[in-house]
Amino acid sequence: MLALSPDDRRNAVLPYAALLGSMVAFCIGTSFAKQLFPLIGAEATSAYRVGFSALILLMIWRPWRAGLSLADVLVTARYGAAMGAMNLCFYLALRTIPLGLAIAIEFLGPLAVALFASRRPAQFAMVAMACCGLLLLLPIRPDDHALDPTGILFALGAGVGWALYIVFGKRASHLHGGQSVALGMTTAALLVVPVGVHQAGAALFTPGLILLGLVTAILSSAVPYSLEMVALKRIPSNSFGVLLSIEPAIGAITGATLLGERLNALQWLAIALVVAASSGMILFTRAGER
User: Which of 1, 53, 250, 284 maximizes the CB count within 10 A of its CB?
Assistant: First the structure.
């Protein structure tokens, strides 16, 4: 067996490193964003996140420089609509559901994508392992407090948006990553910003809040989505979906570090299961599928 060159090893690791970086940035940015909820509400916070991200990505990537066919426009429009719905529903869920639990419920969307794309028994086993870990993160035991039903519905809606984001993002992966994510985020902003303006009114234009919204956008959208487009180009949809199962664990660790949330033994077991499932999916995915 021929040894991989340093360039080959770097190219093989890069998409997975990009995906990990996107999840870490997202969890930190979302923890920061929750501080804006009492001030302007979840809808306006989502408008900050998506609107500023669109402006940043447009300035960086200038997607108008490369031509687009009508088919490409439709693909990026669907991709952006899914992105906007996912962002808005997720923030609405966070009003009444803790971050880690909202991520776990939302993950049902990409997990479904992974399940439908899997072909090998070992991959199904990894999906099952991830499900077991995620179930431990959900408050289904008798001694847990009941979750707000409206929050659960919004988290499920975010999961549907996340699943469509993966599917449509894969279809747009033939485009330059920066171009597709910039156009997609612009479409999302056209959907979400009017909702935020309607909800918050003039408060949305308070200078201090605008600065906080800009930081939120950079950490929780602009950086993660750009990195995810790098990952989507090289990671098959089944691996991508299960690898994202690390995110509830990252969210739990972020909550413990930044918000002082304590984790119990079952939650740490859930983290171990989802990390093992993610690692196993990489091992059981053939090189030709990556």
Answer: 53
- In tens, the pLDDT along 188-202 reads 999 999 999 999 998
What pLDDT shows up at residue 87?
94
> Does residue 3 lie in a domain region?
no
State pLDDT tens for residues 203-218.
Answer: 999 999 999 999 989 9
Instruction: Say yes or no to pLDDT of 59 above 80.
Output: yes
Per-residue confidence (pLDDT) for residue 213, from 0 to 100:
92
Does residue 1 lie in a domain region? no
Q: How far apart are CA 88 and CA 188, in angstroms?
A: 9
Helices (H), the chain: 6-33, 37-40, 42-61, 70-94, 99-106, 108-117, 121-137, 149-171, 177-200, 207-217, 223-234, 237-243, 246-258, 265-284
Domain extent, residue 172, equals 15-289
Asked whether the beta carbons of 123 and 284 are under 8 A apart, the reply is yes
- DSSP code of residue 4: P
Task: Determine contact, residues 87/159, Cβ cutoff 8 Å.
Answer: no
The verdict on residue 27 lying in a domain is yes
Q: How far apart are CA 126 and CA 273, in angstroms?
A: 9
How many domains does one find in the chain? 1
Q: How far apart are CA 245 and CA 179, in angstroms?
A: 27
Instruction: Say if residues 101 and 138 touch (Cβ distance below 8 Å).
Output: yes
Q: Please say whether the beta carbons of 110 and 162 come within 8 A.
A: yes
Which range among 69-73, 194-198, 256-260, 276-280 has the greatest average pLDDT?
194-198
Whether residue 256 contacts residue 98, with contact meaning beta carbons closer than 8 Å, is answered with no
Q: What tens digit of pLDDT does each residue of 122-147 get?
A: 878 888 888 888 787 776 655 555 56
- What are the percentages of helix, strand and coil residues in the chain, rounded to 5? 85, 0, 15
